[in-house]
Amino acid sequence: MGAAGRSQTDVNRTAILAHLGAHGPASRAELARALDVSAALITQLTRDLLADGLLEELDEARSGGRPARMLGLVSHDITALGVKVAPDHLAFVEVGIDGVVRRSETRPFDAVSPLAVPHLTDLVAEFIAAGESDRLIGVGVGLPGTVAEQGIGVVDSTQLRWNQVPLGEQMRRALGLPVVVENNVNALTVAEQLYGQGRDFRNVLVVTVGNGVGAGLVADGVIVRGRAGGAGDLGHVPVREDGPLCQCGNRGCLEAIIGQAALVNDARSIRLLGEAEGIDELHGLADAGNDEACEIFAHAGQQLGRSLAGAVNLFAPDIVVLSGEGVEAWNHWSGPFERALRSALVPGKRGTTVAVERWQDDRWAQGAAALVLATPFDSQGVAGEQGRLVRERLVASIEARP
User: Fold this and answer.
1) Fold match between 79-189+361-399 and 200-356?
2) Domain 79-189+361-399 = CATH 3.40.50.720
3) Greatest C-alpha distance within the chain
4) Measured distance CA(109)–CA(323) in Å, rounded
5) What angle do CA 109, 252, 161 make, to 5 degrees?
6) Are 298 and 291 in contact (CB under 8 A)?
7) 81 strand-pairing partners
């Protein structure tokens, strides 16, 4: 089976655990309907999960026909840690194997500090120590940048100003735990696919707007990573040939026009904001009806709509999910965005659903934790050796269960 097929199977297995954790015991037929997969695949996957000791067969249930054997989780106390890394803060969550967030925390962080990685590791260790779970099977990290292989975790990030940082290796050595590292939008896309508005669809485009602009694509149930994990750089689609300089070194990228720093710079250039003011103040001015502030957001919405139309025409998703810090001001983006998007879509795609999910740090971190929860089912996939190590910890936790 190819890597894409394995990734799809991994997410399906994780989705089974999440569904049973959220809704309680279910029959195989109920799981097949809820997850929109074939009965044959559910039979195969649940057989594997039963063999792994993660599921158990319970009493039979009857619903008008022949009795159906119910399946339930063996244990709810196995957990994974998820970390979202942003330039100025970290978000932590501890997530049960059922996908439920047990606890969360946000801490300030300076990504450009020479001691950024040791500081990150220390804060992760502190969060782990503050918890009560003794069945932590691994740590997932989501960050803005390119990660060629989750299980190795070497990071290139213009937002964090990191170049070939061996984050995975350094964290594994310091924590003594398996660590998988992934682009933060891909991690968020996993969370959307398992727990969010994308869970009922096979083809999902997740777009985030904030400091940067990113995209995660699920095609036929599989997250597309591209060469060296570099897929999804929607923010670096060229929009204007003579446009502003982007942090990537090119000119006229979408991110350099509609990212939060770009909007603030536009407001400062017309003296709408002072040097000490930022995106929150710009949002406040728009809420108060300031025409110039509203126009800045409207222009951003129009630019995003046209650029996103190109992605929708290319990939034909069932649904587009918009998220990120930028959607906090979505009422000022939405009108021009909708007009630009729909007018630039080809006729057969003009009805594509666009859902806005209010930005929450813990959803991003939850996606990073979900990466860990998926790795035990594929020790030779994108998580590589880390998948095997996570699986060993998972099996040991099950065997140690009272």
Assistant:
1) yes
2) no
3) 73
4) 22
5) 25
6) no
7) 94, 139
